[in-house]
Amino acid sequence: MESARQRLHDLYELYGFGHACVLEQSMILDELINQYNRMYQTKKLHQ
């Protein structure tokens, strides 16, 4: 997740906010965060 966040930051610095590759990386990071949250919630429910 950290490497995806760093890649997003790097792409943003190169291309700015509205560039397609920045938006795509943002969606990738969002999905990783969502997966993490789902895993955390599942783990929390089974404790």
What are the key terms here?
mainly alpha, 47 residues, 2 helices, elongated, 0% strand
Task: Provide a concise account of the structure shown.
The protein is mainly alpha-helical and 47 residues long. The chain is 85% helix and 0% strand.
Strand tally: 0
Determine Rg (CA atoms, Å): 14 Å
List the secondary-structure elements in sequence, H or E: HH
Relative strand content: under 5%
Biggest β-sheet, characterized? none
Low-confidence stretches: none
Q: What structural category arises from helix and sheet content?
A: mainly alpha
Q: Helicity range of the residues?
A: over 70%
Ends distance: 25 Å
Secondary-structure blueprint of this entry?
Layout: H1 2-15, H2 20-45
InterPro entries: HLH_DNA-bd_sf, Spo0E-like, Spo0E-like_sf
Organism: Paenibacillus farraposensis
Protein name: Spo0E family sporulation regulatory protein-aspartic acid phosphatase
Report what the structure shows.
This protein is mostly helical and 47 residues long. The protein has two helices and no strands. The longest helix is centred in the last third of the chain and has 26 residues, at 20-45. The chain is elongated and about 45 Å long.
